[in-house]
Structure prediction request, 165 residues.
Amino acid sequence: MFQRQAYRSFVSYMDRSREYYAAQGYTQPYTWPRFREVPFTPLSKALSACRVGLVTTAGRKEPETSDQVLPRELYAMEAYPPPKRMYTDHLFWDKKATHTEDVDSFLPLNRLAEFAREGRIGSVSPRFYGVPTDYSQNRTMKQDAPKILEWCREDGVDAVLLTAL
Prediction:
């Protein structure tokens, strides 16, 4: 079983994730991905000329009943008008320290539109994209990321802002 180290090279939710997997009977602790090289590339044009997209882990709709479990799926939604509410209660964040009633605090579509009006960015993608929080590296790399990339290319996105809860 995983043992905590005397020093931290990562945040403690990673410890909790490993402990959770061990408690579920997994013999191999969850291994967080590490990449020596990352796929970030320099922008080919000024940010003021770029179309910016937004990816969130918030859900697009709330269950109708408390016992209903919605499928955790990718989605692309019209960015304007921005949604008044996103479903976040199913995600693991410190609900005692903060809330998600202010959608602009985690889905800054209004701020991006303001930046576009000011000329700080070229434009905002007509859609924003949602991806479920998922601990499957395989599914993330082979299914979710390619689909988000496909949608970004369809929308002519040059840069993406990731806002995870």
Q: What stands out?
A: Strands lie at 51-56, 75-78, 123-124, 127-130, 159-163.
